[in-house]
Write a structure and sequence with these properties.
Helix content is 25%, strand content 33%. The chain is α+β, with helices and mostly antiparallel strands.
């Protein structure tokens, strides 16, 4: 295919997105000599993507609906900045036919497929009908119009089934339903999530396969009618129906199966005259596969395809939008090695993967091995509750799958992310799990294999973390001292008593005493051990120590009474205990607290009401996911402290439930 030389190159792209994908688009655009414009919500004003764009426009609002989904504000920003093209990234307006039409009507170039293709394939229901007509195997499904007999529709499909948003992806608006008793609540919750995330509450039911693989094919099509596939990605390791580890190629796809799935994906794209980058998703069981959906946009996991093919998919999107033909054929593409991507989220795997939020006190990319970081955060970023909590993607490309997996695990382990709880340690556990290394990765992997949700440090690691925190604090105090600054610690004409400090680490406690010595060392006394500690250097948040002849370097971050350390084996957080007991601290028995920061979507009880065990009390929404607060036991609602629309912090008291008398 010959490269078409265009006279009307794109000069300035407005990016309708945020975080890591906005930075990713900015990087490719700048490499192509194209200027960029960012738009941002109030909470994103200080985030890296805003500063990296050539221009940035405040959208004036906090939520998705007020900002990244507000089409009028986006188009006004494009006009104000002189943008001649719009890139939607993924999520938000990326699969919105109305917006695509509005962009083109405004005389701008839409970096994506046609509005007609979005209508046919971006909508999950229409795409399934199209694939059925084309002879591609699909799973039984049915749309759920408002007021319809949902139970009858579900009975016709059969249980278990999936309630699914028609307009979007990313696991939003999805619920697995095992029986009719769960159906009503699942439909209601899925509609709410879909409306909040995509501005469209259309949902449908689909037969649920619990042990299949999620395999997708990347396609590219140009305006001249050329279509190629860029091989497959496997995205089976998921929680809440959202991918967390993706890889290319799939360990389950043979060369013959790859040809069949690739041909099906290309046929799907040709059927609608597809242009730009898109992904055709399938469920795979053995050699059998079923069409799941087509995403008419760039995917979060596109980097693994880039790594094995050498393509820049964002660049290809821009070239296609300019009218250029693909510069390669299907025969020109080949698979080189293996690539794996892990998504780092602000979430707590130990607490059912619930989202977390707060400031990023430290973010340092690992340098122990070659890795690609597509990150939305830097040190000083703040992770709010308004948007998806994905912080970064880490991608490794290696000659073999096992090497890629183990290298990625070590890169994650040595990446420093401090300030909020993340799934980083869980990802490490998955990547090193024997079942994962053997390629046994079906969509029920997390439930079936159950890798450890976090890291359990050995006592020796905890001791080293405590010493690092104590030495760091001592060094800080010494640096701030206005007296005897030229005299090293321990140089006294009398023997000073040891310092005592106590920490808690989860359910463990650590009592540490240390005393400065005349030779410049410290004598640390902990767990009936006496350890000689030399502080070799201290630069910024890094401290290097020699502990009984063992040299280690730790990063230490102080946040109030929290001490977050990252040593050779990973991160440990310690809480410094007060020197004197807090007599005012008292627990509230029977209190139900918020498991995550968020907004109260709905309350279902009132004060004075008797409730049964498991009864739904209220629903919280944060980071575009919902969490149900249910009664842990039968009782009486003594106090309901929140109402619909209230915003609550993590750990805030919501309901006081007392046991029923008699």
């Amino acid at each position: 295919m010959a490269d078409v030389i265009m006279s009307n190159f794109i000069k300035r792209i407005l990016i309708v997105n945020r975080g890591e994908i906005a930075r990713r688009i900015i990087r490719s655009a700048h490499n192509m000599g194209i200027s960029t414009v960012a738009v941002y919500a109030d909470g994103d004003a200080g985030e890296p993507f805003v500063g990296e764009a050539d221009q940035a426009i405040a959208l004036g609002g906090k939520s998705s609906l007020e900002t990244y989904l507000d089409q009028a504000k986006i188009l006004a920003a494009a006009s104000r900045t002189g943008a001649d093209a719009v890139h939607p990234g993924y999520g938000f307006l990326s699969e919105n036919m109305t917006f695509a039409n509005a962009v083109q009507k405004a005389g701008l170039i839409w970096i994506g497929p046609s509005a007609d293709a979005i209508t046919q394939m971006g909508d999950k229901l229409s795409s399934k009908r199209l694939m059925t007509d084309a002879g591609v195997p699909t799973l039984p499904s049915a749309e759920v119009p408002m007021g319809s007999d949902t139970a009858a529709l579900a009975a016709n499909i059969g249980y278990p089934l999936l309630v699914k948003a028609s307009a979007g992806g990313g696991g939003k608006g999805m619920r697995v339903v095992e029986s009719e008793s769960e159906l009503g609540e699942a439909v209601e919750g899925a509609r709410r999530e879909a409306r909040a995330a995509f501005g469209d509450d259309t949902i449908f039911l689909e037969r649920w396969l619990s042990t299949s693989r999620h395999v997708e094919i990347q396609v590219l099509g140009d305006t001249a009618g050329n279509v190629v596939h860029c091989f497959e990605r496997e995205c089976s390791v998921q929680r809440r129906h959202q991918k967390i580890i993706e890889e290319a190629p799939s360990p389950a796809v043979t060369s013959e199966l790859r040809k069949k799935m690739g041909a099906a994906a290309v046929a799907a794209a040709r059927a609608i005259g597809y242009t730009s980058a898109g992904t055709v998703e399938f469920l795979l069981d053995g050699e059998e596969f079923w069409f799941l959906e087509m995403n008419t946009r760039l995917q979060v996991e596109h980097p693994v395809t880039e790594e094995i093919t050498g393509l820049d998919l964002v660049r290809e999107q821009i070239l296609i939008a300019q009218g250029d033909s693909l510069s390669f054929t299907q025969e020109d593409l080949s698979i080189n090695g293996h690539a794996i991507e892990a998504r780092i989220y602000g979430e707590d795997p130990v607490n059912d993967f619930l989202p977390t939020s707060g400031p990023v006190l430290l973010f340092e990319r690992s340098e122990v091995a070659d890795a690609r970081f597509d990150s939305g955060i830097e040190t000083g970023s703040n992770v709010g509750i308004e948007f998806d909590p994905m912080l970064a993607k880490v991608i490794v490309h290696a000659p073999t799958r096992s090497e890629a997996s183990l290298r990625l695990a070590r890169v994650l382990e040595t990446t420093r992310i401090q300030g909020l709880i993340t799934n980083r340690d869980f990802l490490v556990n998955v990547l090193r799990n024997p079942s994962f290394l053997a390629g046994d990765t079906t969509t029920d992997f997390i439930e079936r294999v159950n890798p450890p949700r976090g890291r359990t440090p050995a006592r020796g690691e905890i001791i080293e973390a405590g010493i690092a925190a104590a030495m760091f604090a001592q060094s800080e105090r010494r640096a701030r001292s206005n007296t005897l600054k030229r005299i090293r610690s321990g140089w006294r004409n009398s023997i000073m008593p040891p310092e005592l400090i106590e920490y808690s680490i989860g359910d463990e406690e650590l009592t540490l005493e240390y005393q400065s010595q005349r030779n410049g060392s410290f004598l640390a006394m902990v767990d009936d051990q006496k350890l000689e500690v030399f502080v070799k250097s201290r630069e910024g948040q890094q401290i290097t120590m020699e502990i009984d002849g063992r040299l280690i370097t730790c990063t230490v971050t102080a946040d109030g009474d929290r001490w977050i350390t990252h040593g050779p084996a990973g991160q440990i957080e310690l809480t410094e205990l007060p020197r004197f007991p807090d007599l005012d601290r008292a627990g509230l028995t029977g209190g139900l607290t918020a498991p995550m920061p968020g907004n109260v979507v709905e309350t279902y009880v009132s004060s004075g009401e008797e409730v049964a065990q498991g009864q739904l009390l209220l629903v919280l929404e944060g980071m575009k996911m919902e969490h149900r607060i249910t009664a842990p036991n039968p009782g009486l609602i003594t106090d309901l402290l929140v109402g619909k629309g209230d915003q609550v912090a993590n750990g805030e008291l919501l309901v006081v439930l007392s046991e029923k008398n008699g």
